[in-house]
Amino acid sequence: MMTAARSADSGLAGPGELDRYPYGEAPAGERAPLRSWGGGDSDFGRTSRRGTASRGRGLHGQLVQQLGQMIVSGDLGADRPLVPEEIGQRFEVSRTVVRESLRVLEAKGLVSARPNVGTRVRPVSDWNLLDPDIIEWRAFGPQRDDQRRELAELRWTIEPLAARLAAGHGREDIQQRLGDMIEIMGHAMAQADGITFSRADAEFHSLLIQAAGNRMLEHLSGIVSAALQVSGGPVTGCDRPGEVSLGHHARIVEALASGDSAGAEAAMRQLLVVHLDVERVVPAPREH
After folding, report:
1. Residue 16 burial (C-beta neighbours within 10 Å; 0-12, 13-18, 19+)
2. Sign of the torsion formed by the C-alpha atoms of 189, 190, 194 and 200
3. Cβ atoms of 94 and 88 closer than 8 Å
4. pLDDT tens-digit series, residues 110-155
């Protein structure tokens, strides 16, 4: 049990100081799964758990998600002290689970731990905004509009360039896999299977970036995958499955097969800009 003296000596939050935040209390003897912050299953909490659950299972993954959401949403503001003992008591998890969870958040730039100071929330400027988890948490939090715009701008920069470069590499193996993804998307669309369509679409874009032959671009493929896998992301042809969207995907592959760099780039831009909301975000291509 954390004492008042310990809290005063460390300069960290005292007992009960976190009470003003809506931590969910788990019933006695029920240690898993962790309850949501608000005690209910809000749209924010419910949808955000979809992607994160696949990246971190069990109490450790759930605690990372809960704390990460709280920080990104602004409920735990910058320079806010986090007391491991109190977090452990609130969620009825061991010190090891708390310690490892905070280490994950520290690696993402969300918190910092220093001797004689403790663990504190870091300002947004220090966050790793390219981390897929942070992209997801921002997409479901108060910063959703900023996240949507920033992802659209970043994809507009990355993917047309990747398509242009990929057309010059002639990777037949990747082109075949891209064709397979289009076939899967078409079948999924006919079956109204949005999950399968989304997964095949994410694989398509990831493969395309790999085909560019630029390892620095390849490291950014996770950003595109995260953008495609979270709802509330950019409204593009990929988010609105239909014959037009599928046609743009097919034209990209056709351009790659023929080595048409300009055609591949143009087809990708057509895919990314099919909705007025995005057209207001990204600049129109300049005439040369």
Report:
1. exposed
2. negative
3. yes
4. 999 988 889 999 999 999 998 989 988 998 888 888 888 888 888 8
